[in-house]
């Protein structure tokens, strides 16, 4: 199975390849090429919310959709699926950094070459064949003169010094923080690459409900 063929198969489900790398031996997942999959924008949220997992009222519809779809793609291409949720915990951040298409940003969060700070991984597929790894591109932050991510957080919970989770939750409990509950993290949105990615506010609000539940 070629990477192009896998990418085409993933595109049918509004997913795209976010990078690939040789499977790290120390992770114990086997030999081959690990292909990372993330939302294809624009259009991912409009597609996924029409799927059966979002109509039954059960919890974690996005994870259940990801498990069904990516496992199905893996079976079709003769690969093995892995996910950033459930057990055992898989080192997706390490895989992303090794892929050559994601880096640590000035605010510590991962930044991706096309998704910016909106990067998320819905799963990965291990192909038994050896394919050429992603060609490392330039880290987008290196050419970002203003670095708006460093000053975008209203309570200054997310900075170059790290992430103050307590301060973040406290701000989200305020009236001012309600905008972020509905639209998502201002730091992620401030990234120039993120602004060209096309994620809808509805998807950000979905993730915020799991991070900081509200009525």
Provide a descriptive summary of the structure in words.
The chain has 215 residues and is of the alpha+beta class. It contains 9 helices and 8 strands. It has a 4-stranded antiparallel sheet with strand order 1-2-6-3, with helices on both faces. Strands 4-5 form a two-stranded antiparallel ribbon. The radius of gyration is 18 Å and the shape is globular. The relative contact order is 0.16. The model has no long low-confidence stretch (mean pLDDT 94).
Features:
215 residues, alpha+beta, four-stranded antiparallel sheet, globular
What is this entry, summarized?
The chain is built from nine helices and eight strands. The chain has helices at residues 3-11, 44-48, 61-77, 92-98, 165-172, 178-183, 186-190, 192-195, 201-211; strands spanning 15-22, 33-39, 80-82, 102-104, 110-112, 123-127, 158-159, 162-163.
């Amino acid at each position: 199975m070629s990477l192009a063929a896998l990418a085409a198969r993933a595109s049918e489900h509004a997913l795209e390849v976010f990078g690939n790398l040789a499977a790290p031996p120390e992770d114990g997942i086997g030999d081959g090429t690990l292909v990372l999959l993330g939302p294809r924008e624009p259009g991912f949220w409009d597609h996924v919310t029409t799927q059966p997992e979002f109509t039954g009222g059960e919890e974690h519809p996005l994870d259940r959709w990801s498990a069904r779809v990516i496992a199905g793609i893996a079976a079709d291409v003769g690969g093995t699926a892995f996910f950033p949720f459930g057990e055992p915990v898989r080192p997706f951040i390490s895989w992303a950094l090794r892929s050559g298409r994601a880096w640590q940003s000035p605010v510590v969060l991962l930044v991706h070459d096309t998704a910016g700070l909106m990067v998320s991984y819905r799963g990965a597929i291990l192909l038994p064949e050896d394919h050429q790894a992603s060609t490392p591109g330039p880290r987008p932050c290196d050419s970002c003169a203003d670095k708006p991510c460093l000053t975008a957080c209203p309570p200054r919970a997310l900075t170059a010094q790290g992430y103050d989770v307590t301060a973040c939750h406290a701000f989200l409990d305020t009236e001012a923080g309600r905008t972020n509950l509905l639209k998502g993290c201002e730091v992620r949105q401030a990234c120039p690459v993120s602004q060209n990615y096309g994620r809808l506010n509805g998807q950000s609000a979905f993730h915020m409900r799991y991070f900081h539940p509200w009525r």
